[in-house]
Write a structure and sequence with these properties.
Shape: globular
CATH architecture of the largest domain: Orthogonal Bundle
Radius of gyration: 24 Å
Oligomer: single chain
Order of helices and strands: HHHHHEEEHHHHHH
Strand content: under 5%
Strand order of the largest sheet: 1-2-3
Number of strands: 3
Low-confidence stretches: none
Helix content: 40-55%
Mean pLDDT: 85
Distance between the termini: 86 Å
Number of domains: 2
CATH class of the largest domain: Mainly Alpha
CATH topology of the largest domain: hpI Integrase, Chain A
CATH superfamily of the largest domain: Intergrase catalytic core
């Protein structure tokens, strides 16, 4: 590891891009290298004194995709979920929408981490590597009470055949989204939509950041979509509060 320098890291980073990978994919490789060397320094690996990936600039990413579900689309999606051959999907997808949790967090959720009395869900290991607590709404509590519980199975949304978390739900999800007329919606867009619904309901970015478990507020801002109706309501509030309604002037008489 001590034979790798900054130039080698830069070459690897750009080579990944030239091989056809997206800027985001190349950046993830660089970020992983930073993490590996940070751990090596932390653990005192012999010969590793500096992080050669530190300070290497990330490539600009222009592929940030924003897709938010409307209330009508959510209803269509739910109607199709009830007809899915995967009978657990009708619980998994609403859980994703109601909590803004990541797909893997929901699929591996355990009953022991959910407290129905305090209406809280503890996710032991999140994307950041730290535990976080997600508040559960009344709708989520009602949903969890309806989920079929498998005997001696610790997982909330387990596969009824294996009693273990689903490895993939893509096929059943793909069928449902196409039947609902929203084939472009990804599972991660449900997380986007959760944040969008909160922002449009007047919740602050700080609240959304805490619920989603983002370390940086800049990450949360990506989800801070405001509908055109919300923006119009906002500017109309100025008229109401200023008392200038009807004071736009009159046309000059001739």
């Amino acid at each position: 590891m001590d034979e790798i320098g900054r130039h080698e890291v830069i070459a690897m980073h750009h080579a990944r891009r030239h091989e056809g990978a997206s800027p985001a994919s190349a950046n993830r490789l660089l970020i992983m290298m930073r993490y590996i060397y940070n751990l090596a320094i932390k653990w005192g690996i012999p010969g590793v004194k500096v992080n050669p990936a530190s300070g290497v600039r990330l490539l600009e990413e222009n592929n940030k995709r924003e897709r938010f579900l409307s209330k009508v689309e959510v209803q269509r999606l739910y109607d199709c979920l009830l007809c899915s051959e995967n009978r657990i999907l009708q619980y998994i997808v609403p859980m994703l929408i109601y909590t803004g949790a990541r797909r893997r967090e929901v699929l591996t959720a355990r009953w022991e981490d959910i407290n129905l009395d305090t209406m809280s869900w503890r996710i032991p290991i999140s994307k950041s590597g730290k535990a976080r607590h997600v508040p559960l709404s009344n709708a989520v509590i009602e949903l969890l009470r309806k989920v079929p519980r498998l005997k001696e199975c610790p997982y909330v949304f387990a596969n009824p055949n294996t009693h273990k978390p689903y490895v993939s739900i893509f096929y059943s999800w793909d069928t449902v989204r196409r039947n609902a007329g929203i084939p472009d919606v990804r599972i991660h867009d449900l997380r986007h939509s959760f944040a969008s619904f909160l922002i449009n309901a007047g919740r602050s970015l700080y609240e959304v950041q805490r619920i989603l478990g983002h370390a940086q507020i800049t990450t949360t801002q990506r989800y801070a979509h405001l509908s055109s109706e919300t923006l119009l309501d906002a500017v109309n509030e100025v008229v109401k509060l200023s008392g200038l309604s009807g004071m736009g002037g009159t046309s000059a008489s001739t």
